[in-house]
Every structure is written in C-alpha cells, then in structure tokens.
Amino acid sequence: MTLALSRAVRGLVVLASLVVLAGCATVTPEATLMDDARPAVRELIHISPPDRARDVVSTEPFEVRVPRGRLERVTAAASHGGERLAVPGRISADGHTWRPATSPLTLAARYTVDAVAVDASGRRTARHTSFTTYVPEHRFIGYFTPEPESVVGTGMIVSFGFSRPITDRAAVERAVRVTSSPPAEIAGHWFGATRLDFRPRTYWRPGTRVTLDLRLRDVRGSRGVYGIQRKTVGFTVGRSQVSRVDAAGHTMRVVRDGRMLATVPITAGGQGNDTYRGKMVISQKFAMTRMNGDTVGFGGEYDISDVPHAMRLTGSGTFLHGNYWAPPGAFGARNTSHGCIGLPDVQGGGPSTPAGWFYESSLVGDVVEVVGSPERVVAPDNGLGGWNMTWEEWKAGSALS
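The chain above was modelled as a monomer; its predicted structure follows.
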C-alpha cells in the first residue's frame, strides 16, 4: 500500500495533505510544540496564571482573555489527589473573557487550560497551558498519567511526577503499587528526584486492566516531607497499534493487532533537524494547537497558530501532526520539518485526510517507532521513551532492585 491506505481506508483518506505554547520538538513533561517556518503572530489568547507557573496561591486570579477577538471554547481541568475534575466556567457575553464558576483555586493541584479563539479576520488560534498551585509545607503530591478510567494503547507507561524532590525513593516506590489483570511483570524506574515511571517487560496485552494503588499518605518522601494521597484508580488497555515511520523512505506503516492497516506518505525532520530515532509513545492529542519556534530554540523561524491533528511524542516537542503548508511534492519524497513528523492535511484539519484518519485511529499510549533517521535514539525520559531501554536497564533504575 502507498497513500493507498487499503480500499477501506481510501474511503476515509481522499485528500493528501492544548500543555503550553506548542513546539515540534508524567504527568510531567509539559514542553512546548514546534514545527515549520511561518510568519510570527501576536499572541491572541492571554491566560492567567501564566503557563507553567508554580506555587500559585489559591486567591490568584484565574481567567482567559481575548482583547482583540472572541473565545469559541475554553476547557479547564484540575488534577488533585489522583482525580482529574473539569473546572466549570462561563464565557462573557462579548466573548472576550472566560472565568471559572467557582473560586478559590484548589491547593496542591495541577490545572490545564485549552482555549480556542477567533480574531477579527476569522482566523482561529489555539492555546494550551498549565500551572500548579501551592502545596502546603511538609507535604508532597504525585501527579500521574494516564488519566483514570481512560482507554490507552499497549505502549502506555505509567508516569508519576512529584511536587517535591524525593530522597526516600524506596519508601515512595513501595507505596505506589501498579498491578494488572491478566498479571504482567511490572517494574518502576526513577528519572531523577521527581519522576517515577512504571512499565511491564513487554507491551501490555490488549484488554488488560491496570490498577494504580496509591498509599502515599504519611509516607516520608524526604526529611520532614510526607505524602497525602490514598487512592486506587485504574485504566484499560485497548487494541494494539504500532506505527513504524521510515524517515529515509518518507512513509509510515500502521499495524493494528498484527494486521497492516495502511502505508501513509510523511515528511520528517530535514537535514540538521532530523527526527529522533527509536520508540516513542503518544502522550497527548490536540485537535488543533499552536507551534512556536521561540519555545524550542528556533527563534522566530515559525509560529503556526492552527496546527491540526497534533499528537505529542516527546516532552521536548516532537509531534506527529497534520501539515497543510508543506510543498505539494514533499509527502513521500522529502523531509522538510524541524523534527516533527508531518502527515498530509488541510487547513482546519480534514476528517478524511491521512492526518485526520490517523488522529481518529490513534490512542494515547500507541507506539510510534522511527527508523532511517541519522539522529540519535530518543532519551528514555524524553516523553514516555522508556521502551528504548532493555528490561535489565529498566529494572536497574528501581529503588527496590
């Protein structure tokens, strides 16, 4: 198959074509997004507290403003104590402001905001930001992914990000139990003092039920600092889907439950901006997002406010996304991006384009493996890159080994 996705998929694919300020590059990595050269645009959406703010006090103003346009939609959520709850709010009659329905802010919580606005010329802009509120002294919280009761791909890695550095790692790891049905061998791995990931020896079996038992309340994380969570949550593993991107061949082969679904033309990172090699896991999905070169070290080389069908692969900003601005002959023939993987799409995101089909066909937790690139293998702590370690290397990073 070529753009030839199979006859069934051809019927879907007929056109070739929020988190933070987005960048093409565990709860934790909330980096920015990035991609190709476009003229810079002035910020349309203003969100308070600012992106990636920490230790925000409960009385801090929380709002979304669009002085030069109108808001179409705002979605906010707060993760606290193992739960992720929607934050209700209302857009003002003039469309310039969104504010939450309740106040004050919850302490020891992580807030995310996704907003879409339209400027005076009718152009849409999206923005994704996050911030964390103040954690009372002598306590720590573990923020984790995936979301409770979600359905994920077979490559999902459970990732905890702690609000304070952990020195008593064995005690904390012992207090976080990750089990599955059917049973699988699962181990933890520490990436520094604030991140603990869990994965099985091999990819999860489709249909597996995974349970996270958090018994962190009163567990000492470091001198004088104790946990406050005691909760049990879980998620379910869906079907298996692994996509293999050949950067040299400019194609992506999508395999579902051992059966070839499609071969899609792609454009990967150009010379000097090559796409990472290795196994990456989709950790976030955005129907539309913004990618700004300033956020990932490319200066003002590009600023694209309406990147469609974007799926995060690394914390540093590698995305697989729809691309409507590449030269017509690039897909399947040339690598032109700043490191991302682009699929044919149209402006606004077409449901029947290759990018639209792949977005709807993918789950958070699906594996995307890149081969044929001269770039180094992605670091195991860059996003959910732990599948690039052997099982022995992985277990060696446990405080209980």
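The first helix runs from residue 7 to 10.
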